[in-house]
Amino acid sequence: MQSRPRRDPDSKRPLPVQREGIEPLRPPERGRRREQIGQFSLVVLGLLCHLLLFFSLTFPYVYRYDPYVDVPWITTGWQAVLGDGLLPFAIFPVVPYLACLLPMLRNKEWLEASLYLNVLLNPLSFLLIWGALFLDRIGDFNHQTTWLDAAYDRHLAFLFLSVIGSSMSSALLGRLLRRNREEA
Questions:
Q1: What is the per-residue pLDDT across 10-40, written as a single tens digit (0 to 9) for each?
Q2: Which CATH number fits domain 32-183: 1.10.12, 1.20.140, 3.30.160, 1.10.10?
Q3: CA distances from 53 to 2, 90, 102, 108 (A)
Q4: 3-state DSSP helix/strand/coil percent for the chain, to nearest 5?
């Protein structure tokens, strides 16, 4: 004989039929589901900020004209980053975001520490990249004529906003991971 589904007095949905030894399958709590969605959205926001950072480094920043060679040189952000050995400062902050996508690494203390390190590393990398571009502008030897791109300030604003967005996302994600680890 099949039993009739019971109704929960607080909701309009019937509860599943309970059989002996089998617990009903229930959806996860709403608070936990919101945390998972919030964590995923912070990871996506951090990755998008770094994608914007990588994109903004492709813009031309400094134009240089050497009258002896009669060739104009264009310096992009990537040339300044690679020329001064700053590539690890541009790549390392992406690694913790990618590690957050793996469920087995989410509750690790080193992941939380690396996210908090990102909060400091992102502005430091911005200052180093800006310094590399600025020093490339200063290097006006042999009567070269050097000038900035017309949208130089906009490119730096893209860089700055992506660094600030990534730092905020890292701080919030690290705090969320700490809270989840303490609750577990």
A1: 666 655 555 566 565 555 566 667 777 888 8
A2: 1.20.140
A3: 61, 8, 23, 27
A4: 60, 10, 30
Q: Are 126 and 87 in contact (CB under 8 A)?
A: no
**Contacts made by residues 10-19, CB under 8 angstroms, sequence distance 24+:** none
- Per-residue pLDDT reduced to its tens digit, 47-96: 888 888 888 888 888 777 777 777 777 878 888 788 778 888 888 888 88
Cα–Cα distance measured from residue 1 to residue 146, given in angstroms and rounded to the nearest whole number: 89
Paired strand residues for 66: 71
* Higher per-residue pLDDT: 2 or 162: 162
Domain residue limits, the chain: 32-183
Q: What is the pLDDT of residue 36?
A: 77
Rounded CA-CA distance 42/51 in Å is: 14
Cα 133 to Cα 138: distance, rounded to the nearest angstrom: 9
pLDDT above 60 (res 183): yes
- Rounded to 10°, the helix 152-183/109-138 angle is 170
